[in-house]
# Entry
Amino acid sequence: FGRNERYFSGVVACIVRAIFKDVEDFSTTREDNSLDFSRKLNHGGDVNQINQQWSQARTLAKNAADNLDFSGSLTNKFGDTVSFGIIKVVAIHNTSTTVGDNLLIGGGATTFLLLKQVTGRYELGPNGLILVMEPSLAGKTVTAGSADILRIENQGTQSIQYEIVVMGVQS
# Structure
């Protein structure tokens, strides 16, 4: 009988393209700008490596908040408790398309410093996406009891659905 092992890997990719055309009577000036980023994350705890992940589609009721505890209160799809020591990727997608359905990201009692702000929060509008990736060995440190909560808040008048993916190194 074999050993039960878990293997984590991931890919983070982002493509942004902007094209500007200025058409005049006899000529066209065109400016193309792009950002292409792709990084493969292999299994492990070093640079460009992860050994823990958590993802979920969630619904926040009006005037409600999620306090996501990255040091032991979340479970993954295998039923395992997830406890991060370092987070390397956080992606949050506000799936609502209704104007005014904004999510406030950040804040909380023991704030995980996603954006390196203790009191500041990021407002993610409808169909918006925020992606933070630091594949270095350091990543963003999670400290149980003092820097382990990511707060996501709905101050709107109706429920908002969002998707979240977190990848990192277990504690």
